[in-house]
Amino acid sequence: MPWAGDSQDVPSPSELDSGSTCSRLAKVKKGVNVLSPRTSQPRQWDVKQELGDSGKHATATVVCQRLGPSARNRSSGSFHEVVQMNFEIASFSSLSGTQPITWQVEYPRKGATDLAVSEVFISQKDLVGIVPLAMDTEILNTAILTGKTVALPVKVVSVEERGAVADISEAVECRSADEDVLEVSDHCDYIFVNGKEMKGKVDAVVNFTYQYLSAPLHVTVWVPRLPLQIEVSDTELSQIKGWRVPIVASKRPTRDSEDEDDEERRGRGCALQYQHAAVRVLTQFVAEGAGPWGQPSHLLSPDWQVDVTHLVADFLKLEKPHVATLQDSRVLVGREVGMTTVQVLSPLSDSILAEKTVTVLDDKVSVTDLAIQLVAGLSVTLHPGVENSKAVTAVATAQDLLRTPKQVGAQLRGGEGRGGRCAGCSRGEAGGGGGAGPRSRPGPRQHRQRCHLSHADLGQHGPPRPSSGV
């Protein structure tokens, strides 16, 4: 079939005089035929073609001779179209893929130019376009927090003029427009982030190419805003009067001894329980805007934060673990008087993603009340977000009525991480003693521990929402 879809222009210096000639050499593989050339300006140029055969390749030399002065303004540029060359694909069965055409132009007194290569794409299908398809149009770059790659599978399909669709994923080429935001696999079958990216972006682009067709894939990449925010329900922890717990031998300082009985005696006894505090790690996910000023965009809205405690649980550390410890990466427990820092370490480097200072005090607090709730059942209702269509509010309601015989109800007990021991504590003078006893604070302030079941942790926390029975 004839092919002239990518007609080549012969660059001709504007200073060629009447009668001057230039020649152009085209070399193609066997199976691609060179048809007769056509001049674009028959009154200005005469073209002649000579065909040759060099074994695996066929050659065509086109000699162009100026007949008269150029009608174009020479100041408009030194190159203009002189001749068009058409090609014919002799057999689709013997050729496939991309066929190169090598060009060279020779000018009088200037010699030959460097070789140039054009490509002819040979396909038995009349394609009108390609379409990259992804499972989603957004990626949360949690790899910065976890060190684990986040990937999104991609398929690329071709669309023929008659409407047929075919999977061409294994034959495409691809490239990310900004690898500091988003990367693409070597086989173009998925896009990913691995935590080494520098920023997020709205409408990050990955370009896919198949033969002469190309198409972009637009993805928004959200990254956590650093530093993260560590939320501690109480940054000052004290001992609780009247609540004693056994002393673990390995947790109290002892001198070296080979006397096992001495070690056993030291392991006995009780000490006052220190307060517990809930720990959460929050952040906002942001992306650089697509506009010229690159204003940051927020996931959902600037009022929303995401609870990422479960993602950074393995990287939550205490600077001084002898002062306080973390239980299940969510509960902070005092151990001895002092000051320490809760830190979130980066899984990919030695940097600190967040830190919060907490203090274990030497004063004591008292139990003021207990809160116990009978829960015979739970119900959950979902409500669409009012301010943001992507948000859904879940409200859990506790039922305290036993409706059937032998029904068992659960008791939700408030306290410092210990069922029902302490629902509220008042911080004031330590009990008893004179001037040498534990210090007291002027005008003792009241401090309440929240001892009720909060909303189920949905991972995202927005403006305060009304609770219902829980």
Detailed description of the structure:
The chain is elongated and about 110 Å long. A hairpin with a 5-residue loop joins strand 17 and strand 18. The protein has 470 residues and is mainly β. Strands 22, 23, 28, 31, 32, 37 and 38 form a seven-stranded mixed beta sheet that branches.
Give a short synopsis of this structure.
With 470 residues, the protein is mainly β. It is 3% helix and 48% strand. Strand 34 and strand 35 form a beta hairpin.
What is the fold's blueprint, element by element?
Elements: E1 2-3, E2 21-29, E3 32-34, E4 38-39, E5 45-53, E6 57-66, E7 83-84, E8 87-89, E9 97-107, E10 111-112, E11 116-122, E12 127-134, E13 138-140, H1 143-146, E14 150-160, E15 165-167, E16 173-176, E17 183-184, E18 190-193, E19 201-210, E20 213-224, E21 229-232, E22 236-246, H2 260-267, E23 270-274, E24 276-283, E25 285-288, E26 296-298, E27 305-307, H3 309-312, E28 316-318, E29 324-327, E30 331-334, E31 338-345, E32 352-369, E33 372-375, E34 377-384, E35 392-399, E36 410-413, E37 424-427, E38 446-447, E39 460-461
Parallel strand pairs: 13-20, 22-32
Antiparallel strand pairs: 1-8, 2-6, 2-9, 3-8, 4-7, 5-6, 9-10, 9-11, 12-14, 14-15, 14-18, 16-19, 17-18, 19-20, 20-25, 21-24, 22-23, 24-27, 24-30, 25-26, 27-39, 28-31, 29-30, 31-32, 32-37, 33-36, 34-35, 37-38
